[in-house]
Amino acid sequence: MRQWARREAERLITQREAAGLPLMEENYYDPSKIVLPGAGEE
Asked: Which Pfam families has this protein been placed in (predicted)?
């Protein structure tokens, strides 16, 4: 499993570098898809 994870990480890094993207995004989750409760809800 570790070998696969390492290969997958290296593959993603190579793809992002080739596309000129940063290695890590500012937000881990897409903020437009996060639903927050209203002010009165808990």
From this structure: ESSS (PF10183)
CA distance 5 to 32: 28
- By CB atoms closer than 10 A (0-12, 13-18, 19+), residue 16 is middle
Report yes or no: 7 and 15 within 8 Å, Cβ to Cβ: no
Give residue-wise pLDDT tens across range 1-42: 999 999 999 999 999 999 999 998 888 888 899 998 888 766
